Amino acid sequence: MWPVKTCLFFFGFIGACALSVVYPIVGIVNYMMIYQVNPNEMWWGLPLEPLGLRYSMAAAVCLILGMFVSVGRVPKSKVFFGDWLLLLFLFTVIVFFSGGGFTNSTDYSVVLVDKMIKITIFLVCLVRMGSTLRNYKIIIWAIVAGTVMIGYDAFNAPAGEFIRGRLNFVGGTDFRESSGLAAHMVGVLPLLGALFLITRNWYRKGVIVFAGVLAVNTIIQCRTRSAFIGLLVGGSVALIMAPRGRRAKVYVTLIVAAIGAYSLTDNPFWERMNTAINPKEYMQDAAVKARIELWSIAGKMFLDHPFGLGVGQFKEYVGEYSGQFDFSMDLQHRVPHNSYLLCLTELGIHGGAVFLLLILGVLCKIKRTLALSKGILIPHEGAILAYGCLLSVVSYLGAAMFTDRLYTESFWWILTLPVCLEQAIRREITEQESLPELLSAWRLVLKREDNHVALPAGTPRRAFG
């Protein structure tokens, strides 16, 4: 007999898959929740192992099926693939030819190629389904729900899930290591803040605050300097780029959030963060020394192989280079702990160029969204959502400078959400522009009907004249 929680999850998942065929947006939420929680690693998911269910695959298949079957519930678009998605396809092609069964291919590289292809397929669905404001908000609420579940598990994590005082083994597959989990939470926090600012219902605001507190607590438990750097980058941009007309409200929210976050910290957290900002401290830290050597090795690798070593190959070659430096340590099968250097060394200058264009494209879309928001019925709503996207992107990009997030799905979610929001704002403007024409047509119909009021006795009157 399954535990109650196992039963609730199983039948809830099956129901969500079935609903996805009728309501594709449910498929998006279902897939995102499975990714964030990862039932295979939860105690209530273990009894389902004999069934051999591939949760993400099932959720994705039902989502895609729903987008074909329930076409009427899929937001229409004149352009099937936009400029940003085309760049993403190009990046995925580069990843494929860098490790998809060709030269220098390993089992690990094949896994990464397969993962990047699946990420791209989901992002295409995400852009299409997230291109309305209503659906976009539903997607953010799915992230809120996932944050609550991850944060709750982190809060109740047993001592065995801490390694050298840092939280591990919580959340989805991409979050099993502390740096990845903390970087995800850093990217999520600005989205929660933006949703809080546009939400009027106090009950919902309370849920968002609860999620935010759990997210901050999780970051503190992870004690990762990469996340701390991401928060510093995001906080600096937050103060500079606060939307006009809402700056007082934004600043008050930021101050209250900062005070609340500080109250959750402890001395071990600040002792570790001190090694990231104090030169005397970080030059004595073994992990920092290892990063400096890995970055030096990455630079040498790039100069020797400007067109890339191939996907997943950095850890295969790092041992050959480590002996060339005086301060060399045992770096066998290590990664560079820098997403941008990882991209350059494995995908080459062409892969790095496309990756840079993807990031610049996202920032341009945020800028356009801020300008377009002035044309919708509630201008501040679009501006705050775009502001949240900006902070989310720069915070995650800041954290990615000190950890490897290139092949992480949540990293690509954060880069894709501004694309969804821009399309949603454009759709709002288009619908508002067509509204006067629709009202004029109805006025004409009603006028024609009024002109036929005086009819001869006994003459039947037809609807609309």
Order of helices and strands: HHHHHHEEHHHHHHHHHHH
Q: Radius of gyration from the CA trace?
A: 25 Å
Provide mean pLDDT, rounded. Answer: 87
Largest sheet: 2 strands, antiparallel
Strand content: under 5%
Jot down its keywords.
2 strands; globular; 17 helices; 465 residues; 71% helix; mainly alpha
Summarize the structure in short:
By secondary structure, this protein is mostly helical. The chain contains 17 helices and two strands.
Description:
This protein has a two-stranded antiparallel sheet. The protein has 17 helices and two strands. Helix content is 71%, strand content 1%. 42% of the residues are buried. By secondary structure, it is mostly helical. A hairpin with a 2-residue loop joins strand 1 and strand 2. Helix 1 runs antiparallel to helix 2 and helix 4 packs antiparallel against helix 5 (107-129). The protein is globular.
List the helices and strands and how they pair.
Blueprint: H1 4-22, H2 24-37, H3 55-69, H4 83-99, H5 107-129, H6 133-155, E1 162-163, E2 166-167, H7 178-198, H8 202-222, H9 225-240, H10 247-264, H11 267-277, H12 279-282, H13 286-304, H14 314-322, H15 339-372, H16 379-400, H17 409-450
Antiparallel strand pairs: 1-2
